[in-house]
Amino acid sequence: MNTSSVATFEYYGIAPFEVEALFSILNGAFTVRERKVERNYEDNYASMVNISFPLEFNSNFFAVIGRKRWDMIMFLIKEMRRRTGKKGVMLVMRFTGNPALSFTVAMHDANLFEFALEKMEILDELISLQLDRRRLPEGIDRVHYQFDTSTSRWRPIEAQGNGLTFKYEDGEWIIVECKN
Fold first, then answer.
1. Which pTM does this prediction carry?
2. Which letter does DSSP use for residue 70 in this model?
3. Is residue 80 a contact partner of residue 89, using CB atoms and an 8 Å limit?
4. Mind listing the pLDDT tens digit for each residue in 104-140?
5. What domain count does the chain have?
6. Are the C-beta atoms of 91 and 105 separated by less than 8 Å?
């Protein structure tokens, strides 16, 4: 266990054995902090899992966490999805780095949910191209990706930095909010 690296996970609507299993899997690589949160009834999902990894999302992440551990996490999330039926699971995964990355899978279609999880493994090369500093607005420190069900692809949807929020549309970052 790496005591200098803390992974956190927040959840609601998952069974105690799922909490224990996820904690155990993560605890094999990191110090883990877990927290049960109140269900947000507006999001319309039976369960939610939000995991924050103390690593950047790149090929090194998969080397550090290991194929077996990653597969166990994905299997557990897929089983949560199967168990909830049509009500679904919302999954958020966050990673450190510059920029920090987050990914959301939030859908009720079981097949697309599994497909989105499987595609995460091959995103690291694509993301490094998309997040090239020459392509991002200056000062971006966070980028959020969401799985687009209409195209069955992961898409950057929002970036934040320097008090600005950008939306990604038609291959360009557009300012949508200024907090200065």
1. 0.89
2. H
3. yes
4. 998 888 899 999 999 988 887 778 777 777 788 889 9
5. 1
6. yes
